[in-house]
Amino acid sequence: MITPALLRQLYRGPAGTCSGVCNPYRDEDPALDQLGAARQRRRNLEAYLERVGEPRLMLLGEALGFRGGRFSGIAFTSERQLAGPAERRLPWATDPPFRPTSRNPALWLEPSGSVVWDAIGGKAGGVLLWNSFPWHPSGAAGPLSNRTPERSLFLANLHILERLLEEVEGTRVVAVGRTSQAALAALGVEAPAVRHPAHGGAGLFRQQLAGLIPEGGVLH
After folding, report:
1. Which residues of 25-53 are buried (b: 16+ CB within 10 A; e: fewer)?
2. Residue 219 has what pLDDT?
3. pLDDT of 146-158, one tens digit each?
4. What's the pLDDT at 118?
């Protein structure tokens, strides 16, 4: 289980110079966020982690996206999957305390997150979704855009990932994309990698992940 001490480190935000980075567990933009949004995102994350329980598999992405964790607080997860229409909602998110946090009346939906949850069958138990840089770096287009975290940025903040790996020792880790693979390598951790589902990678992601999670969900 992830400890409160690690969550406190996460909530404090990234270390060093972090231009264009939003810490959604502390930061609120009045133009984008509902009042109390940061507190709600912490609640969302903590309730999700309770549903994960003891993870057997961790899928490690690169960073929170503005359509996903920036407003949900959970990696590879959109607020519409937590609190949207029933057909979009994840099966484990049917009750409070899950709530949306953005001012977008339609609620944000991240395509990559939809692909990931579909690939793992929509079940939270035993599968931890996380990011090597667990905050939101925005792109040149502003706060509602994404960028790949620079190598110096994720290297300066590997303490979160390092502690997480200690706390979930024995969990099978799969890198989703090159950034997460590089972050693990910087910690001396060898892990299989799959294609990130963004930018046309959804089909290959599903194929590669299926090779690691055979029918029945038992890990290789």
Report:
1. bebbeeebbbeebbebbbbbbebbbeebe
2. 47
3. 999 998 888 999 9
4. 94
**Nearest Cα to Cα of residue 181 among 204, 206, 201, 161:** 161
Give the CA angle between residues 76, 19, 100 to the nearest 5°: 35
Look at residues 89, 98, 87, 12 and name the one whose alpha carbon lies nearest to residue 50. 98
Q: What's the CATH code, domain 4-212?
A: 3.40.470.10
Instruction: Write the DSSP string, 129-164.
Output: EEEEE-SEE-BTTBTTS--PPPHHHHHTTHHHHHHH
All structural domains of the chain with their residue ranges: 4-212
Query: Is this model's pTM higher than 0.90 or not?
Result: yes
**Residue 58 in contact with residue 168, Cβ under 8 Å?**
yes
pLDDT value at position 16? 73
CA distances from 164 to 10, 46, 89 (A): 10, 15, 27
What is the per-residue pLDDT for 220?
42
Contact between residue 134 and residue 63 where contact means Cβ atoms under 8 Å apart: yes
